[in-house]
Structure formats: structure tokens, C-alpha cells
Specification:
alpha/beta, seven-stranded mixed beta sheet, four-stranded antiparallel beta sheet, 12 helices, globular, binds pyridoxal-5'-phosphate
Length: 360
């Protein structure tokens, strides 16, 4: 029985673990051994690790030896942004903090008002010379899908390398063209604390975490076999059929809330069908979150809360949204077990709260 009794509309933060992943983790824990040990149990663990690697690679559309297992998306982003040799680094303004913090000196590529990377600005920044460029596949706050194919063309034409943070899209959409991609198990039904860097380009990557030579010397440390087994089972359990229902549900939700006064961010962009960033005029996001939480609904805001102060989302600010408006935005994100009834319950409460704010 889960302790989580809320209606869960915060899937971009983390997804529930698939039953298949829980079973695979239990099996790997029972059949424990160090995959680097030469004895029979160790060889068994090595076999399980390589089977999981093949399963994940096949499910995501990569080659097994392109996978470097990490502790998640954050470490994969660090490995790419810090481990790939480059004279110049660029990242988009709307990257997750995992990427921004991994490349603090990188020049920032601006985005358009709809939350997608400004291709002309990127081209001007590149100025015909190579660079390591980091751009996410879909934004975790607005769901805006980035023009990765065009970005890859631009970066490739200048002899540079492209890193794509595909944490929000892996298992939902085919991976885009890129030299390096970050994926994370806990966003697609696997356990937290497991992920991978997919290195399509083998050259020029140096390990940040050295040690025992695991992962072909690119990431030292005993592999998290239970986590990786859960990751593999979750990837194999991924189906994309539910995303059509998610798109219809998202459209219904947004139509309903717009009629009640909502503004939907990045509405003009192609978006993940599971993500809506919505502003309720006159209502601080923190207040909305508490209200929804008390009503038994888990959502989140784009705002980062630190030391009691709520800072407006850097993603919305990069899109040119005024700070006061950005501070009124919350994010609804759905997943494979979200139902119409969940979304309706959210809309009912949103409408009632908005009506109260208007009347106040
Ligand atoms: N990148 C994006 C776009 C994310 O949404 C997240 C998680 O919130 C991460 C990276 C970090 O992944 P992990 O939690 O596996 O470190």
C-alpha cells in the first residue's frame, strides 16, 4: 500500500516505479554480487548488468557500448558538460540546474517567447567555430520541445559537440540526434539514483569519477546493479500509446482553465503532452501549492524556494515573462496512470480558487 494518497500531478519531478522495476530490483538484490568479481556469483552479476545494458539500449534506441551508467541525470549532465574537452561551452537559458551548475562559465543561448531556443542567436554565438553546446530535449517546466535536429546541424557544421538533456523525454519520445544524451531512470518508472550518459561520440570524454575502471574507465565505482536492473525493466515497460490520451487530457484541461482566466505558458510551442505551466492571475504559486496540497493534489511550481524566499522560474524569466507573473505559475504534469477524474478534480479546485481570487 502506497503512503502517497494524493492525486499525483507532479510526474516531471518523479514518476512512480513500475511493478516490473520493483520486481527486477528485488531479483538483483537477492542475486547479489559485485559485477567486477571473477567468481561465479560475480560473473552472474556481470551477466545481469550487461543484459540490462542491452535492454536499456534497445528500448531507447542506442548501442549498448554507448551507455555509461551514472547516479542519474545530474551526474550524466556533469560528465558531459565537464568531461568533454572544449574551448567554448554554450548552454540554453532554460536548462535544468543540473546543466547550468555543471557549466557555470558557459555562455547562455537565449530562447524565444514560446520557450524554444533562438536558433539565430545560437548561430551568431557559434560564429562558425566549434563549441560544446548543451540544450535539453523538452523543458521540465513548460514541456516545450526544443528544435534539436536544427541545433545538431548547426553545432555539427562547425565541428562542435551537442549534449542533450533527454531526462524528460526518454521513454516518451525517440531520442533526438546528439553526440551525448543524459537519461534518468526515475522519470520513466525506474528507481531514483540511476541514469546514464549515452555517448554516441566516443572521443574526447574524460571521467570525472575515476576509481576501479568500471564503465570502460569512464565512470568509476561499483555499478548499482539493483538500480540498473530496475531501470532496464522500466524502459522495457515503457509504452507510448498512453501519450495520445495524455495530449487529449492536457488540451481539455487547458481549454477549461483558459475559460476560467488561466494563462498557459509556451502554448505556441510543440510540447510534451504531459506538461502544462499555468498562471492564475493574482495568486502566488506558493499559496496555490499549499491549497492544492491541502485538497489532496500534488502539483509543483516553476519557482525555486530557498531560505523561505520564492524566486520566479528562470525558465519563464528567460521567455520574457515579468517576475510578478512568473511567480503565479504552477506546473501540472501527468503520467501513464493519470485519469480524466484526476484532471477534473484539479480543474474543479483551480476554478474555485480562481473565482475566490477574482471576488477578493
Ligand atoms: N534534467 C532535467 C530536465 C530534469 O527534469 C531533472 C530532474 O528533475 C534532471 C536533469 C536531474 O535528473 P536526476 O534527478 O536523475 O539527477
Amino acid at each position: 500500500m502506497s503512503r502517497n494518497e494524493h492525486i499525483y500531478l507532479d510526474w516531471n519531478a518523479t514518476a512512480p516505479m513500475r511493478a516490473e522495476a520493483v520486481d527486477a530490483m528485488r531479483d538483483a538484490a537477492v542475486n547479489w554480487a559485485n559485477p567486477s568479481s571473477v567468481h561465479a556469483p560475480g560473473r552472474g552479476a556481470r551477466g545481469a548488468l550487461e543484459t540490462a545494458r542491452e535492454e536499456i539500449a534497445a528500448g531507447l534506441g542506442a548501442l549498448p557500448d554507448q551507455l555509461i551508467f551514472t547516479s542519474g541525470g545530474t551526474e550524466a549532465a556533469s560528465l558531459a558538460m565537464q568531461g568533454v574537452a572544449a574551448d567554448r561551452r554554450f548552454v540554453s537559458e532554460i536548462e535544468h540546474s543540473a546543466v547550468l551548475a555543471a557549466a557555470p562559465d558557459a555562455a547562455r543561448v537565449p530562447v524565444n517567447a514560446n520557450g524554444t531556443v533562438d536558433l539565430r542567436a545560437l548561430e551568431a554565438l557559434l560564429d562558425g567555430r566549434p563549441a560544446l553546446v548543451g540544450v535539453m530535449h523538452a523543458n521540465n517546466e513548460t514541456g516545450a520541445i526544443q528544435p534539436i535536429a536544427q541545433i545538431y546541424e548547426l553545432v555539427n557544421a562547425t565541428g562542435g559537440k551537442l549534449f542533450v538533456d533527454a531526462v524528460q523525454t526518454a521513454g516518451k519520445m525517440p531520442l533526438p540526434p546528439a553526440d551525448f544524451l543524459a537519461v534518468s531512470a526515475h522519470k520513466l518508472g525506474g528507481p531514483p539514483g540511476t541514469g546514464a550518459l549515452i555517448a554516441r561520440c566516443a572521443t574526447g570524454l574524460s571521467a570525472l569519477q575515476k576509481g576501479g575502471g568500471q564503465e570502460r574507465g569512464q565512470r568509476g565505482g561499483t555499478e548499482n546493479l539493483p538500480g540498473i536492473a530496475g531501470f532496464a525493466a522500466a524502459v522495457s515497460a515503457c509504452r507510448r500509446g498512453w501519450l495520445n490520451d495524455a495530449a487529449a487530457r492536457r488540451d481539455r484541461l487547458e481549454t477549461r482553465l483558459r475559460a476560467a482566466g488561466a494563462h498557459v505558458f509556451a502554448a505556441d510551442a510543440e510540447r510534451l503532452p504531459t506538461t502544462s505551466m499555468i498562471r492564475m492571475p493574482g495568486a502566488q504559486a506558493a499559496m496555490q501549492l499549499i491549497h492544492f496540497d491541502m485538497a489532496g493534489i500534488a502539483v509543483s511550481s516553476g519557482a525555486a524556494c530557498s531560505s523561505g524566499k520564492v524566486a520566479a522560474s528562470h525558465v519563464l524569466r528567460a521567455m520574457g515573462i515579468a517576475e510578478a507573473e512568473a511567480a503565479e505559475a504552477i506546473r501540472v504534469s501527468t503520467g501513464w496512470s493519470t485519469t480524466d477524474a484526476h484532471v477534473d478534480a484539479f480543474c474543479d479546485i483551480w476554478e474555485r480558487l480562481a473565482a475566490r481570487r477574482k471576488a477578493a
